[in-house]
Specification:
The protein is mainly beta. The chain has one domain: Porin, CATH 2.40.160. 12% of the residues lie in helices and 60% in strands. An 8-stranded antiparallel β-barrel has the order 1-2-3-4-5-6-7-8.
Length: 194
């Protein structure tokens, strides 16, 4: 069933791509997300010579083998890019937004240097966490063939998360809020261009 749906999506984009100029659309997957067992897909539209817009998402509904690390999530991440040469080729800068949900955020960071002052940080995590944010970044797109590209991308920014705060398995605070500044986008992406 999944293979049929993916085939239909690809066929639809092949049809859409043939309506416009060469390389106006790209269907993409981030292999870093693939490596975690996450299903992810992005569609990028080149709407001008130096500009493109992308909408991507990632879903992981599987439980991890250990309680220490949870990779379950649902994320949507739209992005707009400016290409220095031509779209889908070479260097670009980007601005992105992100939003999503995860049943467990945290619980695997090493706060050992703070244990004496804040012993509750040892297993701090948020449950039922919603998050949103945005940032900026840059990347490079390598042309592999007429229809295939490899893309490397790094973005930094701000993320706000809210959820129920737990420590040592016990509820500490309902509706806790968490601010994060740091990497918000890391991608090694294969693209199929239409």
């Amino acid at each position: 069933m999944k293979a049929r749906i993916i085939t239909l999506i690809i066929a639809a984009f092949v049809g859409i791509g043939s309506l416009g100029a060469q390389n106006r659309w790209a269907l993409k997957t981030n292999v870093l997300h693939d490596a975690t067992g996450s299903v992810n897909l992005a569609v990028e539209w080149g709407f001008a010579r130096h500009w493109s817009a992308e909408v991507g998402g990632s879903l992981n509904k599987w439980k991890s083998f250990t309680n220490e690390l949870s990779l379950r999530h649902a994320i949507v991440q739209p992005e707009i890019r400016y290409w220095f040469c031509e779209r889908f080729s070479g260097w670009f800068i980007q601005g992105h937004l992100l939003g999503g949900y995860t049943p467990k955020l945290g619980g695997f960071w090493d706060f050992s240097q703070y244990y004496e002052k804040f012993p509750n940080l040892k297993t701090f995590y948020l449950q039922k966490a919603w998050f949103a944010g945005g940032g900026v970044g840059f990347g490079y797109d390598f042309i592999l063939s007429r229809h295939w590209n490899l893309e490397l991308e790094l973005g930094v920014g701000y993320m706000y998360a809210t959820g129920d705060e737990y420590s040592e398995g016990a509820l500490v605070l309902k509706g806790s809020q968490f601010d994060y500044i740091g990497p918000t986008r890391l991608a090694v992406t294969f693209s199929y261009l239409f």
